[in-house]
């Protein structure tokens, strides 16, 4: 590969990582905003089912307008299959399994399993794109995941009297992780041909025949607090729509295997955002683990990834 080609590839990877960071920063607010939308168990607001289907339906209607405005190319051939697979993971599977799981376990418990998302995404991407990451890359991915899990376990020790234990809700959270990884990789597969905005818009439009009626059937029958609607609007406009503009662009530029590791920052960004929203405090443990995770992402960026088989 020529020097110019190597320089261009490096530039694309850097841009991809920054787009990935932007997407993760947007997604980081999903947890506190979902908490505002659904409310605690003792004072429920919007149902998890309505939040799941309603946010996808609203984003889908906005996507119809966007596609009519840009008048871009329509998906062709096998692209429809990739989009359908992405929809099954990001529009339906992930938000539904996550919402159902969080009704049974506390968020700190769920964070232990959700911290595995970057590693699972990297594995799915490596298989789907036929890439061969180096041992150094895998070491950084495993180390970063271990740091996230260790942090969640340490924080859980002070908030869960019975400790962490496996229960059926954990299976739902694992399904959420697998769904998200599948959706991310399948969406990135066609981003280079359609563009990031069109990918998420087509994914949402394809889902409308299901999400729109489901949202109507699960709509709240009783008044809810204004804060619940604020949370719902955020997860619909940003978590379900605009965030994917940046995220899929990042995956396409930098490659899903490498950019997926930026997700390791998401738990800590969520905690930072929870300070003004939920009145929580940042402590030395959070800052220390956050810096350590950032270091693994930086080292993972420098590790080699063999992409000669990608896309075949």
Automatic annotation (TrEMBL):
Top-rank taxon, per record: Bacteria
A GO cellular component entry from the record: membrane
Main location: membrane
Key words, A-Z: Membrane, Transmembrane, Transmembrane helix
Domain (EamA): residue spans on this chain: 15-146, 168-299
Transmembrane segments: 16-37, 49-69, 81-102, 108-128, 135-154, 166-187, 199-220, 226-247
Pfam families: EamA
Annotated compartments: Membrane
Classification via InterPro entries: AA-Vitamin_Transporters, EamA_dom, EmrE-like
Bilayer topology term: Multi-pass membrane protein
PANTHER family: EAMA DOMAIN-CONTAINING PROTEIN (PTHR32322:SF2), INNER MEMBRANE TRANSPORTER (PTHR32322)
Family note: Belongs to the EamA transporter family.
Name this protein carries in UniProt: Drug/metabolite transporter (DMT)-like permease
